[in-house]
Amino acid sequence: MTWSRFVALGDSFTEGLMDEVGPDGRHRGWADRTADALVEINPALTYANLAVRGRLLPQVIAEQVPAAVALKPDLVSLAAGVNDTLRRSYDLDASMTALDNGVRELRRSGADVLLFAFGDPSRRSAVMSSVRDRIARANAATHAIADHYGCVVVDFWGRAVFDDDVFWDDDRLHLSPQGHALASAAALEALGVGDDRWRTPREPTPAPGAAARLAGHARWAKNHFAPWLTRRLQGRSSGDDVTPKRPTLRPVD
Questions:
Q1: How far apart are CA 32 and CA 8, in angstroms?
Q2: Neighbouring C-beta atoms of residue 238, cutoff 10 Å
Q3: Adjacent-strand bridge partners of 7
Q4: 65-93 mean pLDDT
């Protein structure tokens, strides 16, 4: 399949947080990397990325889907929902109804749609295991929506390859550059233009000793958890003052 107009929607995952910083001063991310690969198939490809960090799934649908439809894409990626599961007020039905509405609108526009089923957080974090069931149920609903509307799903659930710390940033929430490269490889396979080599786990990184682990937990709590908690208590989002990095379709650099 060859696409000409690719639009990426979502939150920090698709904005590309913690990947390499590009010439524009913004992080690249798996979607930028995927566009780089797709332009090798079609040099005329244009690409837009409307994702903004911190966005909840209903916000992505309300803000980004209409903007995407206006760009008349033939391929749209839509990845969001993990932020929602971290909220005490999480409503699975409301979240998945929003996803259904957004996917329906995108498919009616004629675009192919790429969705994501996210990984099991309990594989790497006992703290995050509290939202495991929420993500599992959201993934099941995502697969059902994809089947109904004829979408493609990138499924990270249970993939041992992501258990290696090398694929994660120090904040333990966002992917590292290596992780974004891995996610792009998974997306390309799902789209039918890549292979399955990304699924094979690499040689595991040696586990740090007890003292190093404790020091790492302390750094994470100070540098990442505390600021996140402060924003939540103040009702702020990391994306409050952030705008999309590629709001219009333009050729891939």
A1: 9
A2: 17
A3: 48, 76
A4: 96
Q: Parallel, antiparallel, or unpaired: how do β-strands 112-117 and 152-155 relate?
A: parallel
User: In what side-by-side order are the strands of the sheet with 46-49?
Assistant: 152-155, 112-117, 75-79, 5-10, 46-49, 246-251
Q: Where are the beta strands (DSSP E) in 37-174?
A: 46-49, 75-79, 112-117, 152-155
Inter-CA distances, 124 with 109, 120, 172, 224, Å: 39, 8, 9, 17
Closest CA to 47 of 35, 34, 58: 35
pLDDT-derived band at 219 (thresholds 50, 70, 90) equals: low
Buried b / exposed e over 83-113, threshold 16 CB at 10 Å, is: bbbbeeebebeebbbbbbebbeebbebebbb
For residue 66, the domain's CATH number is 3.40.50.1110
For residue 206, being part of any structural domain is answered with no
Which residues span the domain enclosing 136?
5-201+244-251
| Chain length of the chain | 253
Q: Structurally, how many domains does the chain consist of?
A: 1
Q: Please, what is the Cα angle at 63 between 112 and 187, to 5 degrees? A: 35
pLDDT for 125: 76
Compute the distance between CA of residue 155 and CA of residue 142 in angstroms, rounded to an integer.
10
Q: Is residue 107 part of a domain?
A: yes
pLDDT at 122: 86
Alpha carbon separation from 125 to 130, 132, 232 (Å, rounded): 9, 10, 20
CB 16 within 8 A of CB 28: yes
**Taking the model in full, what pTM does it have?**
0.88
